């Protein structure tokens, strides 16, 4: 079997906490070939030292420029073995480049099933899983008809989209009419019945043959859509104990979507009252924010190194024990907290990993600052979060 050696990294500097991918791949003997539109001197020193070569394009949205960059690397280094950004935004660009250069991984024809919510639903259904009722609507009249069938409240979101952006909970016919006034005419929307449940996730990494080599979960203190609309605080965490029904269903989903040598991030509803789990969507990338770092703290390992091992020799060396719960606790600039960050760090000195500043684009959900902490005991983890987020009423 050909040992991969030329790894093209799309936008290797973003997000900043993904930069260790380049470092670990380089350590494993790969040619790490970066492409982005950021000037070379603006890359971090660590990343510059970890890239074999960097090709700056003027505009990442101009496919011809990026195609030429990959062509240059292929001419100079030989066959391109991998093209990857680990980023939702560049999924289609990655796939088009893989298609055109015949590189292992998702190609353009695979994009519909992992980018559009309507196609995901079909795959979940084919795997025998129950999903929220709903479909793409054609126009305003079709939407009114569908809302009558589903009953208010309904959820409307882009058929192809990321996270909770442009997602609306519509509670009445009047709110639906208002939505028609501000919806983006360029976007295809899907409407679904409202499921009263908590979002839980099944995340991890598969090897070259699609076997899960690492899995984890995420749980949230609040529903993300409410955090944005009601400006609430959130904490989310990687729990030590992952429920067996979630593991079983997660494994079924990984198989149904044929996830190979990739990170995955499946979102599910755990329905209030019944406790049943319903698949919501798949993301073929690592979870966002600091989750990938939280995995490392939760398991005392280096997921970046293990990923490089999987790509190079299809081996995952660490035995995962899940020794810790790791939590991210958001702190917003506009809240009047009882306890300062210093007080939180003093009181729970043995548990605090770090305090993070959050860039503006993410602060609406993640807070301007975030506290990372870990505990062996789940109750102590909740206690730290409540202490850190208590506000003067």
Automatic annotation (TrEMBL):
Coiled coil: none
Nucleotide-binding as UniProt keyword: yes
Signal peptide: none
Listed PROSITE patterns: ATP_GRASP
Alphabetic keyword roster: ATP-binding, Ligase, Nucleotide-binding
Gene Ontology molecular function, alphabetical: ATP binding; ligase activity; metal ion binding
Domain ATP-grasp per the UniProt entry, residue ranges: 121-312
Pfam families named among the record's database cross-references: ATP-grasp_4
Protein name: ATP-grasp domain-containing protein
The species this protein was found in: Frederiksenia canicola
Phylogenetic classification of the source organism: Bacteria, Pseudomonadati, Pseudomonadota, Gammaproteobacteria, Pasteurellales
């Amino acid at each position: 079997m050909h040992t991969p050696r030329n790894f093209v990294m799309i936008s290797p500097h973003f997000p900043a906490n993904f930069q260790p991918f380049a470092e670990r791949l380089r350590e494993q003997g790969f040619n790490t070939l970066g492409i982005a539109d950021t000037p070379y001197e603006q890359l971090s020193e660590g990343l510059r030292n970890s890239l074999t070569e960097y090709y700056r394009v003027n505009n990442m949205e101009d496919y011809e420029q990026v195609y030429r960059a990959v062509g240059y690397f292929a001419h100079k280094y030989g066959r391109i073995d991998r093209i990857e950004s680990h980023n939702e935004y560049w999924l289609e660009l990655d796939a088009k480049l893989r298609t055109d250069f015949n590189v292992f991984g998702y190609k353009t024809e695979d994009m519909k099933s992992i980018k559009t919510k309507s196609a995901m639903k079909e795959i979940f259904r084919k795997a025998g899983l129950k999903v929220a009722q709903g479909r793409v609507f054609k126009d305003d009249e079709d939407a009114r008809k569908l809302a009558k069938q589903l009953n208010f409240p309904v959820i409307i979101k882009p058929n192809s989209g990321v996270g909770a952006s442009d997602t609306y909970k519509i509670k009445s016919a009047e709110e639906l009419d208002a939505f028609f006034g501000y919806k983006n005419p360029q976007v295809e929307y899907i409407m679904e019945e409202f499921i009263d449940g908590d979002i839980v996730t099944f995340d991890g990494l598969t090897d070259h043959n699609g076997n899960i080599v690492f899995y984890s979960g995420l749980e949230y203190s609040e529903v993300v859509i409410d955090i944005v609309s009601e400006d609430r605080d959130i904490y989310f965490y990687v729990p030590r104990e992952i429920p067996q029904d979630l593991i079983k269903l997660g494994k079924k989903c990984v198989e149904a979507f044929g996830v190979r040598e990739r990170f995955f991030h499946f979102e599910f509803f755990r329905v209030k009252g019944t406790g049943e789990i319903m698949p919501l969507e798949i993301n073929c990338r690592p979870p966002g924010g600091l989750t990938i770092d939280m995995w490392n703290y939760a398991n005392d390992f280096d997921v970046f190194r293990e990923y490089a091992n999987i790509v190079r020799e299809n081996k995952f060396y660490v035995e995962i024990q899940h020794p810790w719960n790791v939590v991210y606790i958001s702190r917003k600039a506009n809240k009047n907290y009882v306890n300062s960050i210093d007080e939180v760090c003093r009181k729970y000195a043995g548990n605090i990993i770090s305090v993070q500043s959050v860039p503006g684009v993410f602060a609406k959900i993640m807070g301007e600052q975030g506290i990372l902490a870990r505990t062996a005991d789940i109750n102590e983890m909740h206690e730290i979060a409540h202490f850190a987020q208590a506000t003067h009423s």
